[in-house]
C-alpha cells in the first residue's frame, strides 16, 4: 500500500521551502485527485463489462503515475507542504487497500491454481496489516526522538515492496479482462512477493527500533 509512501517514494516531500505553508499546491491537488478517484474505482470495478474493467485498471494506473508525479513536482519546484506530506500516504493507502479489498470480493478463476478462494485474501491481509502497523509505529516514533525516527526511515526494501505491489495490482486488475487473463498467475505470484517484502521490511524496522531502545537502557 503504497507504503508509508511519502517516506518510501519521497512523494509530496515536505522540504520546508517557501511554499510549505500553502495547502493547495499542485502536488497536493494531484494527491487530492487520487483520494477522489477511490470511490470512482469502486464504482467501475462492479461494472461488469469491458469498459468497466478498462476504466478500473486505467484509474489505478493513473493513480500510480500521479503518486510518482506529485513527489517529483514537489521536489523539483519546491512545492512540498506539511499538508501534502500528511495526505500523500493516506491517499496511497486508501487506493491500495480499496483495490485489494475489491479483488477479494470477486475472486478470479485462476485455472493454474484451481478453486482457491483465499488466494488473494491472504496476501491482502498481510499487506494491509503491515501498513496499519507501520503507520502506528511511525506515528509513535515521531513523538519520541530523532534516533527512533531514523530507525523507521525509508529503506530500499520498502521501495521494492511498493514497486512490486503496484505492478501486481495493475496486472490483477487488467487480468479481469479475458484478453489479459493469462497474466493472472504472474500477477498473483507478484502479489505474494509484495506481501513477503511487506512482512520482511516490517521485521527489519522492528529490529532497528529494538536496537535503539536497548541502547537507551
TrEMBL record:
Broad class of where this protein is predominantly found: membrane
GO biological process, one term: glycerophospholipid biosynthetic process
CC annotations in GO: cytoplasm; membrane
Family matches, as InterPro entries: CDP-alcohol_PTase-I (IPR050324), CDP-OH_P_trans (IPR000462), CDP-OH_PTrfase_TM_dom (IPR043130), CDP_ALCOHOL_P_TRANSF_CS (IPR048254), Phosphatidylglycerol_P_synth (IPR004570)
Required co-factors: Mn(2+)
Record's subcellular location: Membrane
Keyword entries, A-Z: Lipid biosynthesis, Lipid metabolism, Membrane, Phospholipid biosynthesis, Phospholipid metabolism, Transferase, Transmembrane, Transmembrane helix
EC number(s) stated in the UniProt entry for this protein: 2.7.8.5
Known catalytic reactions: a CDP-1,2-diacyl-sn-glycerol + sn-glycerol 3-phosphate = a 1,2-diacyl-sn-glycero-3-phospho-(1'-sn-glycero-3'-phosphate) + CMP + H(+)
GO MF term set: CDP-diacylglycerol-glycerol-3-phosphate 3-phosphatidyltransferase activity; manganese ion binding
UniProt-listed Gene3D superfamilies: 1.20.120.1760
Domain of life assignment: Eukaryota
Ranges that cross the membrane: 183-206
Pfam family, one: CDP-OH_P_transf
The protein's annotated pathway: Phospholipid metabolism; phosphatidylglycerol biosynthesis; phosphatidylglycerol from CDP-diacylglycerol: step 1/2; Lipid metabolism
Family from the record: Belongs to the CDP-alcohol phosphatidyltransferase class-I family.
Protein name as catalogued: CDP-diacylglycerol--glycerol-3-phosphate 1-phosphatidyltransferase
Organism the protein comes from: Brassica campestris (Field mustard)
Amino acid at each position: 500500500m503504497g507504503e508509508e509512501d511519502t517516506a518510501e517514494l519521497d512523494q509530496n516531500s515536505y522540504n520546508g521551502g517557501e511554499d510549505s505553508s500553502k495547502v493547495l499546491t499542485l502536488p497536493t491537488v494531484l494527491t487530492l485527485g487520487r483520494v477522489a478517484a477511490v470511490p470512482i474505482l469502486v464504482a467501475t470495478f462492479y461494472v461488469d463489462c469491458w469498459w468497466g474493467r478498462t476504466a478500473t485498471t486505467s484509474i489505478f494506473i493513473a493513480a500510480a503515475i500521479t503518486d510518482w508525479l506529485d513527489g517529483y513536482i514537489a521536489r523539483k519546484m519546491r512545492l512540498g507542504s506539511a499538508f501534502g506530506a500528511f495526505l500523500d500516504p493516506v491517499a496511497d493507502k486508501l487506493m491500495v487497500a480499496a483495490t485489494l479489498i475489491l479483488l477479494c470480493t470477486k475472486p478470479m478463476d485462476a485455472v493454474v491454481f484451481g478453486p482457491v478462494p483465499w488466494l488473494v485474501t491472504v496476501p491482502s491481509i498481510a499487506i494491509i496489516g503491515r501498513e496499519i502497523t507501520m503507520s502506528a509505529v511511525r506515528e509513535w516514533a515521531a513523538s519520541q526522538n530523532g534516533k527512533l525516527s531514523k530507525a523507521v526511515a525509508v529503506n530500499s526494501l520498502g521501495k521494492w515492496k511498493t514497486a512490486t505491489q503496484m505492478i501486481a495490482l495493475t496486472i490483477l486488475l487488467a487480468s479481469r479482462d479475458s484478453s489479459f487473463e493469462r497474466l493472472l498467475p504472474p500477477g498473483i505470484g507478484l502479489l505474494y512477493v509484495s506481501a513477503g517484502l511487506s512482512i520482511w521490511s516490517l521485521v527489519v524496522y522492528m529490529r532497528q527500533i529494538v536496537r535503539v531502545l536497548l541502547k537507551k537502557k
